Amino acid sequence: MSELKDGIQAGIRESLKSGDKVRLSTLRLLSAAVKNREIEVLRELDDDEVREVAVKEAKRRKEAIEAYEVGGRLELADKEKAELELLQVYLPEQLSEAEVDALIEEAVALTGASSMKEMGKVMGAVMAKAKGKADGTQIQAKVRARLSGE
Question: Going by CATH, does the domain composed of 3-90 fall within 1.10.1510.10?
């Protein structure tokens, strides 16, 4: 069993004992998502794959926060923010702005991209290396600015 999965299970037990309902529900949802992924791939996940599941769960929370804020449902947005904060422990360490910029420059040089038509090639190269360590929308904005000459 992966260390992260063990940590999730230990967190669930601690939350049950302490009565922390938000943490308990968040970790149970994460655990269920990991189990569902294991069923899909027909094997136990390693730590990197568990992190990928956590990244997807965090992304869902971010999208829900946006939707709730637009809809004026601030109490639900606050709940999602609390869950997102709890998930941060299981996410891979995020790349700095400088590291993202370096990845973009490397991808542009590697692909020889010089126009917006080649944005897909650059995005593919960057996202393959960033893999959950950076927000795709921010990378997309930076690539777009770089290729349009801004």
Answer: yes
